[in-house]
Amino acid sequence: MLPETVKQMPWTDDFEVDHEACTVRLRPTQGDSSEPDAKKASHLTSAFAQVIDKAIEDKLFISVLNATHSEKFKILGAPHIEIERFAGDLFGIVARGAHLTVYTNTLEGMKIWVPRRSADSFTFPNKLDTTVAGGVPSHQSPFENVAQEADEEASLPADLIKRGVRSAGVLTYIGLSKQGFVAPDVVYVYDLEVNGDVTPTPKDGEVKEFYLMSIEEVKAALANDEFKTNSAVVMLDFFIRHGIITAEQEENFVEIVTRMHRRLPFPVTPDQYLDRKGIS
Question: Residue 173 has what DSSP assignment?
Answer without folding.
Answer: E
